[in-house]
Fold this protein.
Amino acid sequence: MSKILILGSSHTGAFQTARHRIAAAFPALDVSYFGLPGSGFFNATLTQGVFAAPEDYARQFQWMETREIDLHPFERVLLVGERFAFGAVMRLLMGQDILEEPQRTKRPLMSRAAMQELIGALVEQRVEALLTKFGRDTRFTFVPAPYPLARSLQSGPGQEKALKSVLKRDTGADWGRTYEARIASEMAAAGLDFLAQPRETRDSYLTTQDRFARQDAPEEASETQIDNRHMNDDYGWQVFCAYAATRLEIRPELEALADETKTGSS
Amino acid sequence: MGPVSTPSNATSLWHSAVADRAATALDGLYVPKFPITPTTAIMTAGSCFAQHVHRTLQARGWRVIDTETPNVALPRTALIRYGYGLYSARYGNIYTVRQMCQLLSEARGQRTPKDAIWRRGDRYVDALRPNIEPEGLARPAHVREARADHLRAVLKALREADIFVFTLGLTEAWVSRADGTVYPTAPGTLAGDYDPEAYDFHNFTVSELIDDLKELRDLLQEVTPGIKMLLTVSPVPLTATASTQHVLSATGYSKAALRSAAAEMAETYDDVDYFPSYELITNPSARGAFYKENLRSVTEEGVTAAMEMFFSAHADHTGTAPLPRAEADPDGDDELICEEALIEAGRT
């Protein structure tokens, strides 16, 4: 059995909730899960192959048996949750009109070359951080945190204002492609394997379909009650299938696929 | 003949004030005329040494105006490649007082330079800030629109400012024969073509510098009444001279003229002061230690020494330095939601 680890931030939750489906559909794989919420994950250490929560990090989840995990036994690691400065890139784009584009919104002008350079620098900074932390380990594949749900563009709590502003722009999707292409090229240059969010999970280029929401959006909810960034088990399943197909060259077994079709869950 | 006055203060005697002192401990060298505090809105401009002033004040959390840099935490190397984050607006280095005056006049709609767009290959650059777009722009119209946007940002910076910190860099300049526009670089170096029929070399005299500094003060006051001006002289020698002088003599002239003009302004006006970073960096007790191997660029130690002199002189006010504004991390997920997502994952 191939030992696979899904390691990451809170976005590991989508994979963990899909664990029974993954186990049934991929019997040849022995998949383990290890996730830490935001700051815990980003401040975690990797020392001599052991990934550990920060010492001062008190939180412990019931489904994780330990605060640390030895990566040596695993043949492959799928690292989930890196945002590749998505929020900063969206805010940068939101704040400027592009000199060479016809659209004007009275925001300060920035040349296309400068915008590309700054987006590239933000991405490069994140890629360097990944390289510093995880090294050039060929077992690793990095899948980004999912793009926010399509519903996050609606007014109200949980709205992704910067993303909405970018997508309102005539060239918003083009800038999304520029951003993602830069991630791919920086990762390739660093010798790190990058798996983009599968197309079939997306709504627009930079949003995720609402059917992958981890929870419904209550009609009258406060800012902290709306989660437009974390996805459900079906999302975890879809991404894992894409990973298995492209990196492990295996597909889910028919029985699981039939069950999946019956429930209409993917 | 009256008695020769005897200096009673230790700072008046070379031996006790300089020779016996560490280069970083020249007490009494800078005695400010007016207080500058962390909440004073500071506008910076000038030659390249002014970049250090801007950066250091910003790093200490002082209120340094920046009207053009995006309000997102961005890697500095990429920012400065496009002229962001260097000064209070994206004007690049302004080496001469005349160029600064012309910029403010242009921002106020009082002048329009005739020859402000130069070619670099098949691209176009703003001749008055030729470094801010390294690849140039595709069309002259883009240069014009970007400049109009920039001029609005210059005026905005000036309107917000309580004090204008200006580092005097050069006396030598290239001037358009058509309308007297002063350029920051020689035509044909970074962009454009050198045409002796179109451009003149000019080396400003002390009286011209004083006239320009007075005009600059007037322009500042007209836009922002009550604004103060802090002048410094760049300690960086000329990299080359277009005069017929030896570059060392040309540097000597340039620094002496700029220093004299600054002194006269500070003597004349209560709202103009001089900050002696030039003296600190060049002082003989440093034995050249504040210069890098090329004997031109100032070391980080030199910059630190100069700025420490500034902060010490305004020490009564530094205790109240506000922390830089904490921005919400645009890439940080809500921690509670993150935890919830993981807890829920364990329940299924």
Summary: The radius of gyration of chain B is 23 Å. Strands of chain B lie at 42-46, 117-120, 123-126, 163-168, 172-176, 182-183, 199-203, 228-233, 272-274. Confidence is low (pLDDT under 50) at residues 320-326 of chain B. Chain B touches chain A through 42 residues (CB under 8 Å).
